[in-house]
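Fold it.
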Amino acid sequence: MGTAKLPALLWLLAGVVLALAVNPAHGAKTRHYDFFITETNYTRLCHEKSILTVNGQFPGPTIYARKGDLVIVNVHNNGNKNITIHWHGVDQPRNPWSDGPEFITQCPIRPGGNFTYQVILSEEEGTLWWHAHSDFDRATVHGAIVIHPKRGTTFPFKKPDKEIPVILGEWWNDDIEHVLDKAQLLGGDVDPSNANTINAQPGDMFPCSRDDTFKVAVQQGNTYLLRIINAGLTNDMFFAIAGHRLTVVGIDARYTKPLTVDYIMIAPGQTMDVLLEAKRTLGSNSRYYMAARTFITLPLDTIPFNNSTATAIVEYTDSATARPVGPPKFPIQLPAIKDENAAMAFITQLRSLGNQEHPVHVPTHVDEHMLINIDINVLPCDPTNMAEKCKEGPQGNRFAASLNNVSFQSPAIDVLDAYYYSSGHGVYEEDFPNKPTAFVDPLVNNGSGPLMTKRGTKVKVLEYGTVVEVVFHDLSSENHPMHLHGFAFYVVGRGNGTFDESRDPATYNLVDPPFQNTVSVPRSGWAAIRFRADNPGVWFMHCHFDRHVVWGMDTVFIVKDGKTPQAQMLRRPPNMPQC
């Protein structure tokens, strides 16, 4: 099988060939990591269970590199199920083979097998992350990627005294595989998590959690770079620190103009670089809560959700007088769980840095316009499948999701292999629509619930160099964090209500929009992105709420090769896992 181990010399030669092919920048290094997927027992909320981890760690190990480096990660699957790993926000120029989503760019790594990923860093600088891209495995299989500036260069802000990864996540007492299986069996929504977490700890407001609460030791006058990641499966989150303001200097490993705020709102998949200046403002108190709270736009009275606030403690340790006195102060500036105005007020202030070292190149001419409706739908239960009960689905159906009324269906072999070997017929269809298409089943769509949709493995094919504008239009009652693999894109506009193609483009920011890989599309609103399709390969686009991925809120871009060797996809590695 394709996951068999290769001789060490062959791996070395493969790495040398790839390093030469991608022409790494002067001074760049090749860095090596080994990831061992294992089942490990962890206890949270007084409840012990076995979870999948990397190297027994939860969260997993941090990858450290510099801009332009090549990172080689050999993943050994010693777990009990198939798995893949994705390097979230890494463009992987010409190298979709190591991007990671199962049945899109690879078949999964089987138990007992291994696969070596070649993670090619190019323009990214800041914080990204890696995570499993199979089923719901990324609930516990994830970690940070820290990309420092090239040697001889530095941050576009004062060098911090210390850097601290802060990974926001979720914890389920139940086995996460059981959570997914139950939802698929019964056709309903996924059970909400039992707690939000900060660096895998819910904080001292939860039972059996006080002793293990994550703590950050700071000293008066120092500056700390918080590398914040939302690794949650289902929740947008507000984040704040009592008695302190935060200065955002980057999002998705692209620098922003410094933005000083009382709180941030970060969607699943997103990363933010945030400066914390240690300046006590609440008298002699030396302990302050760092807090992450769910932000939700769904109706609270009909949809189950995680209404919890995770906490960590920022503690001053530089003075004998700075001793804990009473409980830490709570961040009163943390917005309420449904404060949509607070969320929009934050995200609309983000701007690209746009200086000489980090310029902005927003495409002004668009070759391909796409308007993509995002929706929550239903699919009929299969009456011939006795295992499919749909007891919890709407109107006797099962929940689904769609883009332009196509609910994506993963094929039995990966799309990339089918494209590479010109065998896509029967695996995928090249007719993903540029605009919404109507599909109404009069026997089901009577106005009393979600609309019926249809399954399909439809992809969008682009010529190399095409400038694409995608307007995401949300028809549902919740925000959607839309993530594009293989590219960063400019978020040129957003708004509430229905997108008006004759009026709304006049409101676009084409001067310094933020450059991201994951955009939060507002509930019943729209967001517009632009990118140049100059990365040949097969690239997944999907909502980063994992239940929506399973339900079908996905599609694939296939970018054809350009004319020059540097505009063409790398050759298929010989060791790709087999389906």
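Residues 1-17, 440-447 have pLDDT under 50 and may be disordered.
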